[in-house]
């Protein structure tokens, strides 16, 4: 081989070797998609919640991809991710209904079969815990918006992030409300707790017992309920017998419906029932229980009442209603925010590499005005819990949830007792 040919061959092989060894993946064409996974219970008892979260996630993707350019969000005016040559996002949904382990299995399938660069979503905390552990093993970012168990961000995971409030945050707002009621002379010390016997319920109950000391309170009954239970007759009778000042619940939709209808059958209404989300926040609870649900309170991370005062939130909520012919709710808003946060991190990373996206999530700082939530924004602490997330309390009045606490932003007066017979 001539010397020039040998030199050319060496340079060519060296270039190939350098390309193969380079830590930077080649930049794909601008019309390529960025695939992200989304976890939700799309079948089974929580399917109505799963449908709402999936809609919220899909709407976020549509906005990022440029289908609604009038929405005043950071990634709204353009089409796609400018940091990746305007690449579009593709949402790959996975059903987590069934055994707790299915969440982990779906994460593995999304990563290994669909090659997603990150995962968002999650509802039941136990499912999210398993899914988060698997994403940790696979080193793929997981951005959760809908699971509230405090322990999810206290496990020292490096790849799990939560945009929504934890039950610690929700507990603070609920017990702040109880403290204010107490200062006005309302008895709140005797607390009954009904909760699912899983991570969501057990973690939440431990938090309640910790916060009870803030009002010199006592948990007079603590009832564990199977997440699959549909008959709460004995539990409702026990609550009635101990006559608590307030009932706190951590239940899914079937249990929330069963408890409400059983209380009605027993002609019993506690002075107050405050739910830590779950089934009481599911639109199906309102649709199926009607007047029986009046007076029930629940904590939320998003409020349609507050959204009317935020141009961005109002625009997204109106778009959601036009698109899906149903009002936007808390579950949809939290999923929307999780996906938007993930999209912004991918754009900031200018990369499809999971490690780069994780780094962008660690450093993300989204001001509250650039979200649809009544929060300070999105910024993660060392445990990857969003320090900007906040909770509010709403109460079912005249067939829908109304914002009643904090009092300085309330849109309706809190009814206590919940039957409306008092102030």
TrEMBL record:
Record PROSITE patterns: PROKAR_LIPOPROTEIN (PS51257)
Family in the record: Belongs to the leucine-binding protein family.
Leucine-binding protein domain: residues covered: 33-389
Signal peptide span: 1-20
Keyword S-adenosyl-L-methionine: no
CDD domains named among the record's database cross-references: PBP1_ABC_ligand_binding-like (cd06340)
Entry protein name: ABC transporter substrate-binding protein
SUPFAM superfamilies in UniProt: Periplasmic binding protein-like I
The keyword Transcription regulation is assigned to this record: no
InterPro entries: BCAA_transport, Leu-bd, Peripla_BP_I
Keyword line: Signal
């Amino acid at each position: 081989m001539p010397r020039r040919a040998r030199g050319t061959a060496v340079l060519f092989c060296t270039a190939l070797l350098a390309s193969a060894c380079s830590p930077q993946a080649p930049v794909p064409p601008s019309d390529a998609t960025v695939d992200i996974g989304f976890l939700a219970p799309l079948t089974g008892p929580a399917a109505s919640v799963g449908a709402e979260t999936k809609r919220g996630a899909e709407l976020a993707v549509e906005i990022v991809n440029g289908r609604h350019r009038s929405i005043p969000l950071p990634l709204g005016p353009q089409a796609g991710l400018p940091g990746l040559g305007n690449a579009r996002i593709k949402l790959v949904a996975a059903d987590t209904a069934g055994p707790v382990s299915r969440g982990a299995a779906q994460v593995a399938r999304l990563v290994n079969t669909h090659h997603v660069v990150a995962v968002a979503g999650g509802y039941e905390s136990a499912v999210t815990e398993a899914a988060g552990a698997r994403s940790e093993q696979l080193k793929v970012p997981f951005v959760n918006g809908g699971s509230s168990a405090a322990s999810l961000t206290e496990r020292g995971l490096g790849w799990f992030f939560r945009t929504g409030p934890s039950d610690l945050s929700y507990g603070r707002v609920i017990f702040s409300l109880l403290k204010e009621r107490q200062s006005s002379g309302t008895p709140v010390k005797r607390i009954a707790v009904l909760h699912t016997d899983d991570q969501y319920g057990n973690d939440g109950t431990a938090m309640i017992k910790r916060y009870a000391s803030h009002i010199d309170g006592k948990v007079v009954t603590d009832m564990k309920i199977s997440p699959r239970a549909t008959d709460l007759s004995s539990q409702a009778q026990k609550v009635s017998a101990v006559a608590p000042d307030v009932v706190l619940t951590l239940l899914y939709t079937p249990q929330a419906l069963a408890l409400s209808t059983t209380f009605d059958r027993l002609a019993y209404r506690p002075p107050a029932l405050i739910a830590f989300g779950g089934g009481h926040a599911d639109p199906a609870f309102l649709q199926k229980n009607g007047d029986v649900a009046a007076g029930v309170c629940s904590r939320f991370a998003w409020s349609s009442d507050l959204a009317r005062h935020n141009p961005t939130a109002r625009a997204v909520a109106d778009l959601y209603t036009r698109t899906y012919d149903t009002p936007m709710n808390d579950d949809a808003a939290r999923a929307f925010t999780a996906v938007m946060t993930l999209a912004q991190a991918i754009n900031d990373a200018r990369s499809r590499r999971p490690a780069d996206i994780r780094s962008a999530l660690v450093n993300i700082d989204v001001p509250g005005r650039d979200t649809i939530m009544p929060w300070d924004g999105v910024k993660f602490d060392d445990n990857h819990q969003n320090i900007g997330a906040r909770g509010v309390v709403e109460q079912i009045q005249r067939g829908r949830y109304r914002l009643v606490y904090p009092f300085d932003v309330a849109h309706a007066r809190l009814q206590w007792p919940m039957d409306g017979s008092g102030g």
